[in-house]
Amino acid sequence: MTTKKIFIIILVLFLLTSGALVVYNLFLKNANNAPAKRDVSFPQGELNLKINQISKEKALAPVIGEDNKTIKYYYQSGPVYSSSFDGSTQDVISENKLPGLLEVAWSPDRKKVIGVFQGAPEKKYCYDYETKKSTLLNESIESLAWAPSSDKIAYHYITADNKYDNINIADPDGSNWHAIFQTRLTNLIVKWPSADKIYIFDKPSGLTQGSLYTIDPESGNFAKILTDIYGLNISWSPDGQKILYTATDAKGKNLKLYIAAADGSQQKEMPFQTLIEKCVWEADSQTVFCAVPQQFSQYAVWPDDYDLNRVAVTDDMYIINTATLQKTKIAGSSAAQSFDAQNLILAPNNDYLFFVNTKDGMIYSLKLEF
């Protein structure tokens, strides 16, 4: 074999090897590190996945840990715990007691929290787990939301004398604030699902019409998305391009769940009745898990009576393809194990679903084996 032929063979082998490495690094390597994607066609019929108890006491605000292998949460008495996804191990993050703790809002990077405590008015504190610093926020701050980057908060600011009524942006401890929008709306909910859009809407009630508005955090430009809907509550997909929202009639009856584009177009009614706080989006922004009440009271006002604990429900769990509206029941309540699920979250690889059962206040998980 001539030297020229040997050189050509070596060159071809080198190019083939280089090409294989490029393909691996660009596609296969990233795919191995990415969350598992679920087949868009779900199992037919019903599944009966096992539901496991995670917490040992009544708990608040479950969130996936920074290691993406654990779930952490507050006990209602204040201590913070971390558990494995199957609940087999449990570790203490903080043993501090927090009397009067009502709500906890984790930053998206899970390094800070804003806690809401009983009081007149309620007290809000920002706690930084890295600096170990706690800061009392201004008592005129009403509803608030974390920026996706975790470095800012947006909030509704209204003073007791009503001289100031704004949507503001600030650092998490309340410093370096500035107003981006002035409003006369009251009882607002603030959400910040994507970097370029802050949303505000009326506190959900089946007896009051609500509307959804968007505000550009940089320019303050304002637009109306949905208008005059009774029982309006909203949840955004992870990519910020879709919403789930609820609506009722003028008496708070006939609750319906819809999916739409983020601008309010392309509306489709979902094939079941449930509340926004009983649903969670998968990372693909197409698949949704929802706890669906087995029965809806025809006498209750939705969501008012449910929020005030005047009506109880018992849920079954479903997975839904929002494009095709195909749904599959994956777990159900029974006489032996009954749940009323809220605060649903998914593990990063879509292999566990967690929720708080309001019937006993405990956190539970489902291993998604399908």
What report would you give on this structure?
With 370 residues, the chain is mainly β. The chain is built from two helices and 28 strands. The chain has helices at 3-33, 304-307; strands at residues 51-53, 59-64, 70-75, 80-84, 90-94, 101-106, 112-117, 123-128, 133-136, 141-146, 153-158, 165-170, 178-182, 188-194, 197-202, 209-215, 222-230, 233-236, 242-247, 256-261, 268-269, 279-281, 287-293, 315-321, 327-332, 341-346, 352-357, 362-367. It has a four-stranded antiparallel sheet with strand order 1-28-27-26, with no helix packed on it. Strands 2-3-4-5 form a four-stranded antiparallel sheet, with no helix packed on it. Strand 18 and strand 19 form a beta hairpin. It is globular and about 55 Å long. The model is unreliable at 4-36 (pLDDT under 50).
